[in-house]
Every structure is written in C-alpha cells, then in structure tokens.
What we know:
Elements: H1 4-13, H2 19-26, H3 30-38, H4 45-55
Helix pairs in contact: 1-4, 2-3
Amino acid sequence: MYDRSLLHTAAARRGIIRPAQLARKAGLSAPTAWRIWNGVGAPRGDHADRVADVVGISASHLYTHVDAETAI
C-alpha cells in the first residue's frame, strides 16, 4: 500500500511542499506528480525511484506492508 504521508514528510525536509516542486525536481509531468502527491494511485516503479531519490528515501519506503488479515 502506498503511503503518501512519508513522502510529504521526506519532501518537506528537502524543501518540497507542493506537487509542482516534486514534478520539477523528479522530472515528472505535473499531473503525475499531483497524483503521487495526493495519493491518487501509487507511483509505478520508475516514478517511485525518481521520487524517492529526490526526497532522500528508498523507493520501498513509499509503500507500507499490509497484512492480508487486516486488509479484509
């Protein structure tokens, strides 16, 4: 499951507080950055890698483990 709260926290530490800033720094389109920033779907692999590099975390940290029993 994608966790945008971690993205926001890590991005803020790097001075990124808006989706447009994320788009510029990560080389994403504005609509893609907006979707990632607002949690409208999870970023695909290559986007997750770019976003993670820009905000200083690993791509795997953008996702939280969901236990199958609690997801029901």
